[in-house]
Amino acid sequence: MDLTKPPAGLGIHGRLSLTVLRPDGTIRDRRDGDNTMCTAGLTVIMASLVWSGIQDQAASLGVTTPTYLTPLWGAVGSGAGTPAAADTALFSELGRQTVGAGASSPATPSLNAQATWLFYFGQPPVTWNITEAGVFANGTSTAGSPSTAGILLDHWAVAPSVVVPTTDTLILQASFALAGM
Questions:
Q1: Tens digit of pLDDT for each residue in 121-170?
Q2: H/E/C letters for each residue in the chain?
Q3: pTM for the predicted model, two decimal places
Q4: In a domain, 158, yes or no
């Protein structure tokens, strides 16, 4: 998945993709697009970065609360609306899955550093008509308010919608690029 370069200065840019797989493994549908990075999500990403840099010295620095992104959950929904930086939840969540794989790629003089996570959704109990997706940090398996759902890192409106029949499965891929070029 190619990430477009964010504006000048340090920034995090994200893209999400949805891939619907038939039972035989062939692709029924695939969509990807830029997402909206959420304010609370950017805050927890930076707090996690700080914690990873000071955790061995945290006690002597007076820092007593660790910050992690885990558990990390991918979510899909059927709600309508325009994603905004202030969002804390999907408009109407259909389901969520914990992260199944992750990887990073290093920065080069011409490419941004990138982190990618994959979320695998088994066959849905009813046909899903997906119009939105997002990733939650510090989440649980329960959708709902931010206190139980976790912190929304990013929010993506899917247009046109993606249909997932009860016979198919779904992969949500979240990629974030950190750019300072």
A1: 999 999 999 999 999 999 888 877 666 789 999 999 999 999 999 999 99
A2: CCCCCCCCCCEEEEEEEEEEECCCCCEEEEEEEECEECHHHHHHHHHHHHHHHHCCCHHHHCCCCCCCCCCCEEEEECCCCCCCCCCCCCCCEEEEEECCEEEEECCCCCCCEEEEEEEEECCCCCCEEEEEEEEEECCCCCCCCHHHHCEEEEEEEEEEEEEECCCCEEEEEEEEEEECC
A3: 0.88
A4: no
